[in-house]
Write a structure and sequence with these properties.
The protein is α+β, with helices and mostly antiparallel strands. Helices cover 40% and strands 16% of the residues.
Length: 978
């Protein structure tokens, strides 16, 4: 079961579509799937549900389990979230651990080749075929290969009997009858090798070292799904076919389907398209994955085995210890899951103590423990430590001391009850929201259960098992489970350091052998004073709204208070148990003085943690115990944003937290100091790969080198002070306007009463600086000479970016949506051209940004990760595509391959209140945004080839672009920076 923890309003979708000016044909496309003339009979229910063999876990009755005569297993269920969608998963019980030495990488290579060509798909036509069905490549259509499985995934929108039949046909042909020709291999091999290259660098070296050290002597130590260059280049159609024939057989495959269709109909497609799949010979037994083995002669009480120190100058120091036990398949029953629940509590108690110690300042920035069953190869407990400074021995000692206390004495019942309350919420929320759980998640959960050889259970049953198990959560039981978590066959460690000589293998080994005295200082005191919302100071004097008017869109209303706060309210019964809250205030990036730019990043890390009213960081944790509350903070172009997902019963207190943050901020210095240390440690990691450099610098260059969009370097961070942090963010928190959005399952009258005590009681805000007073965001000047940045990663890695500035502002929002169609056309062409020309993986893509709150700053950007010598070819190819889009309009079929997936994306998104919330951000000060929602579907889907050609001519001209490349540094003394 192992469930230690959205959906959609069909009403909203129908209302939206009723208001969108679409043609009768489009209206028919978005209708619910028509029922077949004769409903098939559900045969699965005549068989024993194979998932629950030897288990007393209550069966999830929504799932129907069956098995075909050829041995293929399947599970189907009806789920209407999002409306019209059906999620299909085909799981093959074979991953990289099933390969022989000469086959390393074959499982993943096959994943690519199955998409290349098969019985019903001509070579290279799979992406286009699924796009015509409305499925977006990469999000709706995808596949993944792990060490233990290969899964083919498709979320089919607007599923009709005809499109379902076609989809099952295509997917069955891929899995049961791939071509696997020499031509297929020749075209896919460079793509897989490019994927290997793109995954290289420092992070990959750490991952490889971790595999080698932790799982020494087991296949997992050398069986990465990507394989090796030697084995992949030696692959032949015959050798790949041999691996396919061994593992791709019906008795080794499961088909999982969840979606908005009758289960009997879904079952009929499985039977129709997979029932005739037959293979010769008996099933090959799965290979042994081995067990962790301790070297001879080590102390069984502290069985420290191999330790390794790895030097990576650009990565922060990071130490991980693994305590390993043999993995054994279990009977997934209630007693087993009760044990997992106690394990979860034991880990949560320790992690809270470690976090308390880190927050107080000291030897480590962060530390945690967690148990995981790894690739059916080891039952492991991992201890992760990020030391502060060079004294790593002190950091490791301090973490081990907290753990030593946990294994020597039981926790208090108060500590247990606190973590149990958190788990209770985690299990209760899916019960409240089970009507809105998307079918894709349900299908993925079942795939995961198959992989770990366990079951699934309905949310009600999970909660019932948990609550009935609470008498088992005693101090002695938690102590016993804690001791088991930290005992094992062997203990191994990997320490990544920045400087050679900072540590040695032997020193690390010895440090793990050193005895430690239990540290009791971070236990939660039993007599700790309770923290209650009732005892917190009021925000101000409550005030009633001065107006409450309909917006004219759906049932959304706008409230206004005398202090200038405006609120958008939309109670929606179709989303039970979920309430989304957003608070927009102030002036965002534009309102920060450029000289204070480093405080922007630190605010994103530390502003929430610095506290409010009388609550510090620990108090915020305690007051939210047993509640579903959030506190996300984001800096946007022209405003700051607080957001959370909560529940109806927690809404009033959630609103208090947000309002008090604005008017009653607290300035605890420790979160600032911790954020500063973390940002300094993190900075060097950006230079380890081309993608890291882009993450660090691309926005900075796209915004005309505005320092407010730069990632602050250690020297800039060092100059920041707690006083400066308070100065910058006190000003930001005091500024208006303030807009509150509350969308979801809540009582309107109760929400207004809570608003009167919180946002209605705020002091009137100081207006954010006007546009004329602000330092406007600029855009880079066009240039054919690339900006050249460098990274410290592998010499065969590079990245290329070409960007065309566009615009911004709400008046251009209709055009911005049409630009999304243009970028999708560009993406399809770039994907085909670059993959075939350069043999890159699926990395090339094009995206459009259009800042609604600014009058400029938008762009169309194309980028790819590739090898350095291919960068000029990428620029040439992107220019050629841009010029062709200007010279020649797309074909009708090409346009349909883009607009149909976009239609489905918008239709599905519009079935959730979160979609409308994002569309209406800022609408209280810019009412035009309300009207623009009505045209959203037509804006994204109704166009002409000529319109696309005109947009291309307006924005994609040769003299409009600028470009950037990230190359490997040749001189190791060079600095990879902006």
């Amino acid at each position: 079961m192992k469930k230690i923890p959205r959906a959609a309003s069909s009403l909203a979708c129908l209302v939206l579509l009723a208001q969108v000016p679409v043609s009768p044909v489009l209206a028919q496309d978005t209708a619910a799937p028509a029922a077949p003339a004769a409903q098939p009979v559900l045969l699965a229910d005549t068989q024993e549900p194979w998932l629950y063999k030897n288990s007393d876990i209550p069966h999830d009755k929504a799932w129907h389990f069956g098995e075909l005569p050829n041995g293929l297993r399947y599970a189907v269920r009806k789920n209407g979230v999002p409306p019209g969608q059906v999620s299909i998963r085909i799981r093959v019980d074979a991953g990289s651990l099933y390969e022989t030495d000469s086959e390393r990488g074959y499982a993943h290579l096959l994943e690519h080749m199955l998409f290349r060509q098969s019985k019903y798909l001509a070579e290279g036509t799979a992406i286009a075929a699924f796009q015509r069905l409305g499925a977006t490549f990469g999000s709706d259509t995808n596949a993944q290969t792990t060490t233990t499985e290969t899964v083919f995934q498709l979320d089919l929108p607007n599923a009709t009997p005809a499109s379902l039949d076609e989809t099952f046909k295509l997917m069955s042909g891929m899995v049961t009858a791939p071509t696997l020709s020499a031509s297929n291999l020749k075209k896919d091999l460079p793509i897989v090798l490019a994927e290997m290259r793109e995954r290289g660098g420092a992070a990959k070296r750490v991952q490889n070292a971790m595999q080698e050290v932790f799982y020494a002597g087991q296949p997992l130590s050398e069986r990465e799904p990507i394989g090796t260059v030697a084995t992949l280049e030696a692959a032949t159609p015959q050798s790949v076919r041999a691996f396919y024939s061994r593992w791709y057989r019906p008795d080794n495959v499961a088909v999982i389907v969840a979606g908005d269709a009758d289960p009997a109909m879904l079952e009929s497609y499985v039977r129709k398209w997979f029932g005739d799949w037959h293979v010769q010979g008996p099933k090959t037994p799965a290979p042994s994955f081995g067990d962790p083995v301790a070297p001879k002669g080590i102390d069984p009480k502290n069985p420290v085995g191999e330790t390794r120190v790895l030097v990576e100058p650009d990565l922060p120091s990071s130490l991980m210890v693994a305590i390993l036990r043999p993995w054994r398949q279990v009977n997934d029953n209630i007693a087993y899951n009760q044990g997992l629940m106690i394990d979860a509590i034991a880990q949560a108690v320790i992690n809270r103590r470690l976090e308390t110690k880190a927050r107080a300042g000291g030897s480590f920035l962060s530390a945690s423990v967690n148990q995981d069953d790894v690739s059916r190869s080891a039952d492991a407990t991992f201890i992760s430590v990020t030391p502060l400074g060079d004294d790593w021995k002190a950091a490791l000692h301090d973490v081990r001391a907290v753990i030593a206390d946990a294994v020597s004495r039981p926790p208090t019942q108060e500590e247990i009850d606190r973590e149990a309350a958190e788990l209770d919420v985690a299990f209760q929320v899916p019960v409240e929201q089970q009507r809105i759980l998307p079918g894709s998640k349900l299908a993925d959960d079942l795939v995961n259960a198959l992989d770990i050889r366990e079951t699934v259970a309905a949310p009600d049953d999970v909660l019932k098992i948990f609550r009935s198990s609470k008498p088992l959560f005693t101090p002695q039981a938690v102590l016993e489970h804690t001791r088991k978590l930290f005992s094992g066959t062997v203990k191994r460690a990997l320490f990544t350091v920045q400087k050679k000589g900072m540590a040695t293998d032997a020193a690390l080994h010895q440090a793990l052998l050193e005895p430690v005295k239990p540290d009791q200082s971070v236990r939660m005191a039993a007599e700790a004073a309770p923290v209650s919302f009732d005892k917190l100071p009021p925000v101000g004097t409550p005030a009633e709204p001065v107006s409450d008017v309909p917006t004219g869109l759906l049932d959304i209303e706008e409230l206004a208070f005398a202090n200038g706060v405006k609120v958008l309210l939309w109670p929606v019964a179709e989303e039970p148990g979920r309430v989304m809250v957003k608070v927009r205030f102030g002036g965002g990036y534009r309102s920060i003085d450029p000289k204070d730019a480093p405080y922007i990043a630190l605010g994103q890390y530390a502003l929430v943690g610095s506290g409010l009213a009388t609550l510090g960081q620990e108090d915020l944790d305690r007051i939210a115990t047993g509640r579903k509350m959030g506190f996300d903070f984001d800096v946007q172009d022209a405003n700051f944003e607080l957001s959370a997902e909560t529940r109806p019963q927690d809404l009033a207190d959630q609103l208090y937290l947000f309002a008090a943050k604005l008017d009653l901020p607290k300035w605890d210095v420790n979160p600032f100091l911790r954020a500063k240390a973390a940002a300094k440690i993190q900075y060097d990691t950006y230079a380890t790969s081309p993608q890291g450099v882009l993450n660090r610098d691309l926005q900075f260059y796209q915004r005309g080198k505005d320092p407010r969009f730069a990632t602050p370097d250690p020297a800039e961070l060092e100059k920041t002070t707690p006083e400066g942090f308070k100065r910058v963010w006190s000003k930001a928190l005091s500024q208006g306007p303030v807009e509150v959005q509350i969308f979801g399952d809540f009582d309107k009258a109760a929400a207004i009463k809570a608003l009167e005590k919180t946002f209605g009681a705020l002091k009137r805000r100081t207006p954010a600086p006007s546009t004329s007073e602000l330092t406007e965001v600029t855009v880079p000047k066009p240039s054919n000479t690339p900006v050249v940045l460098h990274h410290h990663g592998d010499p065969d890695q590079a990245a290329a970016v070409i960007s065309w500035p566009t615009g911004g502002g709400s008046l251009g929002i209709h055009e911005s949506r049409q630009l999304e169609i243009l970028t999708q056309l560009f993406t399809n062409r770039l994907l085909d051209a670059v993959r075939e020309k350069l043999g890159v993986s699926y990395a090339p893509y094009v995206f459009s940004t259009w800042p609604v709150d600014l009058q400029q700053g938008g762009s169309i950007t194309a980028m790819a990760q590739l090898d350095p010598k291919s960068v000029p070819v990428f620029f040439q190819t992107a220019d050629e595509i841009a010029q062709d889009l200007i010279a020649n309009p797309p074909t009708a079929d090409e346009l349909e391959r883009v607009t149909e997936p976009l239609r489905q994306q918008v239709t599905r998104a519009a079935s959730s209140t979160s979609f409308f919330m994002s569309q209406l951000e800022g609408a209280t000060s810019d009412p035009a945004r309300i009207g623009s929602v009505r045209s959203v579907l037509s804006d994204y889907t109704v166009t002409t080839p000529e319109k696309m050609q005109q947009l291309a001519a307006r924005y994609l001209g040769q003299n409009n672009s600028w470009r950037l490349e990230v190359m490997p540094e040749k001189d190791k003394g060079a600095v990879a920076s902006r």
